[in-house]
Each structure stands twice: as C-alpha cells, then as structure tokens.
Amino acid sequence: MNRATINSINRRLLENLRNNTTDMAASETRIAASEFYCPDILAAERQHLFINTPQPVAFSGELPGPGSYLALQMLDIPVLLTRDERGQLRAFINACSHRGARVASGSGQARSLVCPFHGWAYALDGALRGRPEDGCFSTPVDDCALTPLAVSEKYGVVVVALTVDVTQHAVDSALDEIGEHLEGLGFQHYRALERRHFDVAANWKLVSDLSLESYHFKTLHRDSVARILAANAVVDTFGRHSLWAFPFKSIAQLGERDEDSWPDTVQGSCTFTLYPGVMFVVNSLGAQMIRAEPGAGPGESRVTFVGVSGPGCDVEQ
C-alpha cells in the first residue's frame, strides 16, 4: 500500500476509535441455518466456489527457486506446484499418467519426481523423463506428461485452477481487483516458515467469518487480542475481495501528531480476504495465510495455515 492509502486507513481507524464506532453494513442480515448444514448447498459451493473458481493457495516463497516443488490437497484434488530448471512456475494434477499414483508429497527440492509405484520419472516441467521397461509401451513418451493446470503468480501469491476447465485468463485475473493493495505488501520477498493443516468440525463459511468481524474481541479474545487491538474496524471492498483493518489501541497517540510524521505502516492488524475462502493476516513481522475449504460434509472443513516472515525479520521456524 502507498503512503496515501496507509494514512487514509490510519485516519479512519483513529476517527472510529475516537467516536467509539466501527464500519458497519447498511442493515442487519439474516442467513438461514440451512446454509450451513444443507448437503445440496455444500455440493453447489464445492463446484462453483472452489472447483470452478481460481484458488489462492500459496505464497511465492514456498517455492523459493528452480527445482522447488509443493504438493497440495485441494478438496479431493491432488495438486502439484513446481518451478522448473528455468524458475518458471507450473502446476499439475499430482497423478502419474500410468496408474495415477502421486509423484510427490510435501515440499522440497528435486531434479526429477519419481512415481513410487512403477518408477516413472518426471521433470519439473511435467515431461516424462523416463520409465522402466520403456520398450513394453507403445504410447509415446511425449503423450505421458503430467496433466497441466492453469497457474499464476502475482504480488507474491500463487493462484491455481483445480481443473483443466478453468482458463488461464481467469487465473491470471483472479486478484486484479485487489492487486494494487497486495502489490505494495511485497509478498514476493517473504520467506516461508511453516504450513499446517487442520480438520475442523465446522462449516467452512463459519471459519472464514471469524476474520470478518471484531464484535467477538472483548469476549473471546479478552485476555489476548483485546489487550492490543480495539474493535473499531474499517472495511473496504474490492469486487469479490476485501480489506479489514483493526487498530492498535496505541493509535490514539497519532491524534497528537501531524499526519506528515505518521508511520508508514497501518497502526493495527490488516486482514485481506481473497475470494472465496482465504484470509491474509498481515503484521510488521510477516503474514499468515488462513485458507478454509469445504470438507466431506456440511459440518466439516479443512483449514490450512501458512506462515511467512518479511524481509529482514529474524523469525525462526
């Protein structure tokens, strides 16, 4: 974010704090309980919001250089991200073209990826590099590459299609509406710390909703977050995405200073919401990705946490 945007957010946070108010919707909204337990609604969400929609899935720093790979499970689809020998980011269905076994798991560095079932070896660009007993097969090697998926890397964020039906244009433009704000964060320079997965007994929308209000601070977080942050939020929407900012209580000190001397960072915690179910929580040391997606049933979800540290931050894993 540029200085003018940062000052604007700080100014609005300070005003809300002074007036003991917060940005609010125009009116109360009621949501039917069936939205959270109906299997038909869940099936529609999985298809239209996830399978048919480009998905933000990783930070660039999780694939730090040529030969890097990162295997992911998105819904029930195995996805493989790689950087080939030229450093180009690629994405594939993580399934050997012979019998469908996964050719990679976890993350790391490799010159080739070898299927553990029959030993078929793939280059990081997805091409079949070799197969035992090659003379037993009549299908040309060139026809046995990994199945590619559309993938894009902008603002230090990796976006991928989960099926071959999602176009490259859709993936390339998925973050354009909020791109100006993401660009200024410099995520492409952040270093990966850890990636964790949690199976949660809750509908995925409830998990996402936790980051989209500060009403719960004083009760749920009274001994932690509420000691540092005030609940006087500011909210901006950018098409399908949004930015939420929650002020440090110490922001009141800015009222005693001229704006020209204000810090060049938002004096609070910023949460960027990326459609459909990703939250980026940004602070002075780094950022966290919290990704929620549907589980097998309406009352289940899969939550992924990714932590990264900013440039110059001495944060250990």
How do the helices and strands follow one another from N- to C-terminus?
Answer: HHEEEEEEEEEEHHEHHEEEEEE
How much strand content do the residues show? Answer: 25-35%
Q: Structural class of the helix and strand makeup?
A: alpha+beta
What is the helix tally? 6
Report the helical percentage: 10-25%
Task: Describe the strand arrangement of the main beta sheet, using strand numbers.
Answer: 11-17-16-15-14-13-12
Mean pLDDT: 94
How many strands, which pairing sense, and closed or not: the largest β-sheet?
A: 7 strands, antiparallel
Give a structural overview.
By secondary structure, the chain is of the alpha+beta class. Helices cover 16% and strands 30% of the residues. The chain is built from six helices and 17 strands. It has helices at residues 3-19, 39-51, 168-172, 179-183, 204-209, 217-220, and strands at residues 55-59, 68-74, 77-83, 89-93, 107-109, 113-114, 121-122, 128-130, 151-154, 157-160, 191-200, 234-238, 241-247, 268-274, 278-282, 286-294, 301-309. The strands form four sheets. The protein has a seven-stranded antiparallel beta sheet with strand order 11-17-16-15-14-13-12. The radius of gyration is 22 Å and the shape is globular. The mean pLDDT is 94.
